[in-house]
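Consider the tokenized backbone below.
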């Protein structure tokens, strides 16, 4: 009879512990991390090709480090680039996937700004304030 009582008590204790663990697991599963940290971020398509990247390029050649965000088209050509550094920042938008030299670039370096436009036929326009 004692072993039956011990078995019942042990079963009740196990059920209490199981319930407590289940409640803790549900609470942990609902916790959302506040920050994603890393040295770089790369988003790939179904074939494993990089389609978007975000990284910090080290300082060199007289320049400070650069934070660079790229959106890459199906032909693996960066179609959008956004960058920033101590010197300034810039935005480049490339033409369609079939173009090679068409782009629009906005550059802000130090106290100066400029807009550089280029068509596929080689015509260019540089706009400064």
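A designed sequence for it:
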């Amino acid at each position: 009879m004692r072993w039956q009582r011990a078995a019942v008590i042990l079963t009740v204790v196990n059920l209490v512990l199981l319930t407590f663990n289940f409640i803790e697991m549900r609470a942990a599963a609902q916790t959302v991390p506040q920050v994603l940290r890393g040295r770089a971020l790369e988003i790939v398509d179904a074939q494993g090709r990089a389609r978007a990247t975000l990284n910090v390029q080290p300082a060199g050649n007289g320049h400070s480090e650069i934070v660079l965000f790229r959106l890459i088209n199906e032909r693996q050509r960066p179609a959008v680039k956004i960058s920033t550094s101590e010197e300034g920042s810039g935005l480049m938008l490339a033409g369609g996937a079939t173009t090679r030299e068409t782009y629009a670039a906005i550059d802000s370096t130090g106290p100066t700004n400029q807009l550089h436009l280029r068509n596929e036929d080689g015509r260019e326009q540089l706009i400064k304030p």
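The chain is about 20% helix and 40% strand.
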